[in-house]
Design a protein that fits this description.
19 strands; six-stranded mixed β-sheet; globular; alpha+beta; about 240 residues; about 20% helix; about 30% strand
Length: about 240
């Protein structure tokens, strides 16, 4: 199994849900809005014997005429067209905006048309109903008409080695992924387990739908993962994107 972090950079985010680029070498966090959090935006490629998996899709920024997520994948020596599965933990904009791109006529299409997309059905329904500021429906409603979309329900297994688990916590229908193959176990906790520091400490985040549930899940995963030798993938961790005991 090969794991490749695809860092889109560091950002601050506050209650407006706007992600503002942040250069740790130049910018001062204290000059940002009160309560601003400093986070990395970091999808992952996981390359297995049978698949090229993309775990969440970033903010959907463009570099000239090319999607940043495509460029990051190319820079890793991988053709974006080789992605076979797009696994979406949830549909907040920093996790899903790179899943689609707009054509010149305004039509929104899949950024990875050759891949199968996986999302919790109730998350899609909830996100469309809930809308702003947590969700930007215009960025992901194209998924409803996507022929290669698989709507998941609850917990289950994809191709006998990708286990998905409906957790809630960060948002009501958030899911996480366990990728178990080739004697390895990679765990992607999305925004329920976004940073190494949160795994090590009992921490309740005000921005979570159910902060206590998130804390309890992190504690459970942390102890189990250390015991069983999981590799943790942290979407919002600047210093520790990948952690293995």
């Amino acid at each position: 199994m090969r794991i490749i972090p695809l860092s889109e950079g560091a950002f601050t985010v506050d209650k407006t849900k706007d992600f503002l680029p942040f250069d740790p070498a130049k910018d001062d966090l204290q000059k940002r809005a009160t309560g601003s959090l400093l986070v990395e935006i970091q999808p992952f490629l996981v390359i297995t014997e049978n698949d090229v998996l993309l775990l969440d899709t970033g903010l959907g920024f463009k570099q000239d005429s090319s999607l940043q997520i495509h460029e990051l994948i190319r820079n890793a020596g991988v053709n974006p067209d080789s992605v076979t599965k797009v696994l979406l933990s949830h549909l907040h904009k920093d996790h899903v905006n790179g899943a689609g791109q707009n054509l010149a006529d305004g039509t929104r299409v899949a950024s990875f048309p050759q891949a199968i997309y996986y999302v919790q059905q109730r998350e899609l329904e909830y996100a469309i109903e809930k809308g702003y500021p947590s969700y930007e429906p215009e960025s992901f409603t194209f998924l409803e008409n996507l022929s290669n979309l698989v709507k998941l329900e609850g917990n289950g297994l994809i191709d006998s080695y990708i286990r998905y688990e409906l957790t809630g916590g960060h948002c009501p229908f958030h899911q996480v992924f366990h990728i178990e193959t080739e004697g390895e176990h990679a765990f992607f906790g999305g925004d329920v387990a976004p940073q190494l520091n949160q795994m090590k400490n009992r921490f309740v985040a005000k921005y979570d739908y159910d902060g206590k549930k998130c804390m309890d899940l992190r504690q459970k995963w942390w102890h189990q993962g250390q015991k069983e030798g999981w590799t943790f993938l942290f979407y919002h961790d600047i210093k520790n994107p990948v952690w293995t005991r």
